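2024-03-11 09:14:02 DEBUG pipeline.ingest accepted 1 chain
2024-03-11 09:14:02 DEBUG pipeline.ingest length=145
2024-03-11 09:14:03 DEBUG pipeline.predict start
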Amino acid sequence: MKVIITVTDAKNQRNLKTLSLNLSQGEISIGRVQSNIIVNHPLVSRQHARLRLSAEGSLVFEDLGSRNGSSVNGARTQFARLKAGDYFIIGAIKFLVNELEGSARELPAAHPPQITRSAGEWIKSMAQYKNIYGEPLNESSVTKK
């Protein structure tokens, strides 16, 4: 399954980047360190959450017992099935699921999960967060690994 996710500043809705994720084999981890998607923010745990495919081939979000928790579509939760249009928030970062293409049964499981950058630009000026969270969000706040 291919998933397109737009990553934004949760407060100001400014786009940070767009991710294209291939979940045909395995899972995508999200956290401050040792993760596929690294979010450099003090409200994000080292290993905060993951995206994976269910046995039926649907996209699943799981909070991994993070200290500050996660929300899906505005409600705090540890587990949710996601569809296009759903979003989850980790720390000060909002992840909007734009597209779901294929399913686990339709795509070959030839490669491990990959994260690629789109041609979109990074928003470089987010000084407002310095007053709220103690440090500004910038292009290094969300990185791929």
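2024-03-11 09:14:41 DEBUG pipeline.report The chain is about 5% helix and 45% strand.
2024-03-11 09:14:41 DEBUG pipeline.predict end
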